[in-house]
Amino acid sequence: MRKTIKMAVVAAALSLTGAASAADLVFTSWGGTTQDAQKAAWADKFASATGANVLMDGPTDYGKIKAMVEAGSVSWDVVDAEGDYAVQAGQNGLLEKLDFNVIDKSKLDPRFVTDYSVGSFYYSFVIGYNAATVSEGPKTWADLFDTQKFPGKRTFYKWSAPGVIEAALLADGVAADKLYPLDLDRAFKKLDTIKGDIVWWTGGAQSQQLLASAEAPYGMFWNGRLTALEQTGVKVGVSWEQNITAADSLVVPKGSKNKDAAMKFIALATSAEGQKDFSIATGYAPTNLGSAALMDEAMRKTLPDAQSASQVNADMNYWAANRDAIGTRWYAWQAE
Amino acid sequence: MSAVTETTAAGNSERARGTSGWAYALPALLLLLIFFVVPVVGLLLRSVLEPEPGLGNYATLFGSSTYLRIFLNTFMVSAVVTALSVVIGFPVAWMLAIMPSRWASVVFAILLLSMWTNLLARTYAWMVLLQRTGVINKTLMNLGLIDQPLALVNNLVGVTIGMTYIMLPFVILPLRGVIKAIDPAILQAASLCGATRWQCLTRVLIPLALPGVAAGALMVFVMSLGYFVTPALLGGTANMMLAEMIAQFVQSLVNWGMGGAAAFVLLVVTLCIYGIQLRLFGAGRLGQGA
């Protein structure tokens, strides 16, 4: 009996170490349709090109990154993180410097490149409404904040991140080029006017559910989630008026055990081809300037980079510098 | 919970060896030390060391009306959920105890199956049921009972309904054990001596079942204090609970000093409640409950 148990323990230990060494790269992202697309466009291609075994993990968790780096036991090699976090984490020593001998940054959108991060994809916060239940939807941020013209619930992104505060200021009449530094007092005052009518969404899937069920017939969404919802047959109205862009970044946590593979993975993910495939699958915009030429005209029209007329770029550097202060105030305001 | 296992484990080994069973508890204690005590101490250290040494994090925590409101809200929700769970759970436990065993096992299976179903799935199911365009509101509106959908979710009502549902088994299971152990002859004796049915319930059954009620209520209250998933999904931001606040500090703001301070306060409060419970009912009687 004792012997059997011993053997079972040894076998279990062997299989555990086997599993650990079989992963040549661990890629972490936010789950859902976005990570599915990242797997298909990047991870599967990387695996077949190099023979490496790419393990998918998630969701991205900044607390975990900090814990891993501090403990010196980093199990994530490439992480998809929000752009403002990436800038801040790079400054705080939590990330590896990227190797631009491996990653070709000459073709990458310079808005999203730092020493420690490159754009993973970029997205727009847009105004969306359920066209089956609302005939005339909100067109501007001011409309979305107007409870007289548009009564009922509206949904916004719950977490402290670039987007909602900018939308509130734009709705209050702040000019797009005068947004930064953000006037937080004014933004929260504006948000107070609709606070009781806000349903917060914590993730993309929830935002889709709220809109599709008309639980909140309008709101502020990631453009790709609306594209995906439309493809399932839900009647969705979209307004790109003053769409607010923000980007996700690819980063390598400091102390990654597969640093070389991580650089090669990022090189593939940010290549014109990799970015094109991901964009087609998700409706998010490529961060490689060469990708557009590889896509057909109809597809390109639905992407944020075709909506530059009134586009507002969230300032990632401002956010990186003020992330903690804004976040503390944001959550305190929400809990009031 | 741990007191329950400890007492039964100790009892068994005493019967087996006739001596103290501490050695047998050693692996469990070691596990607790490495995976529980050490991280908790680490967290406590962070709360007084980050960002700079001192009690600054605790001062911020207790000095802000927002955080105090979150503490209060957490206690209020936990108290309401505990009270509701006991009120709803007691009759169910009683019924389970006196039912023919064939039927009791069916009810038991329903209870356990619901416990074993994924928590997230169950919470999402409540979301779908309770929302403005959900089944409950639609039915009530179609029946003409209401004109406007009731706000059942993203507020305190949603959290209370969802959490009470999830906590119910933790009251019912220990209570059932205690009620089953009560000799039916005692109730008969009471009624023979002229007690009314109401007196039998309030003067005999409930006092005898009190250790079970206390065990169940304690478990529910303590679990509720640190509950995360259900309040996060069914509650609004205006009635945030402590666990959500800690998650925000740890994950979103990456402010582990504040997260550690909040977690430590929660731990101290929980231990205090447990201490009071032990004083009032004693570990042995708690053990009987489970």
TrEMBL record, chain A:
Gene3D superfamilies per UniProt: Periplasmic binding protein-like II (3.40.190.10)
UniProtKB keywords: Periplasm, Signal
CDD domains to which the protein is assigned, alphabetical: PBP2_polyamine_RpCGA009 (cd13589)
Signal sequence range: 1-22
InterPro entries: SBP
SUPFAM superfamilies: Periplasmic binding protein-like II
Pfam families in the cross-refs: SBP_bac_8
Protein name, UniProt field: ABC transporter substrate-binding protein
Automatic annotation (TrEMBL), chain B:
Membrane spanning stretches: 22-49, 70-97, 103-129, 150-172, 208-233, 253-276
GO cellular component terms attached to this protein's record: plasma membrane
Domain of life where this protein originates: Bacteria
Compartments where found: Cell membrane
Domain ABC transmembrane type-1 per the UniProt entry, residue ranges: 71-277
Keywords, comma-separated and alphabetical: Cell membrane, Membrane, Transmembrane, Transmembrane helix, Transport
GO biological process: transmembrane transport
Transmembrane among keywords: yes
Record-stated family: Belongs to the binding-protein-dependent transport system permease family. CysTW subfamily.
This protein's name: ABC transporter permease
Organism annotation: Mesorhizobium zhangyense
Upper taxonomic lineage: Bacteria, Pseudomonadati, Pseudomonadota, Alphaproteobacteria, Hyphomicrobiales
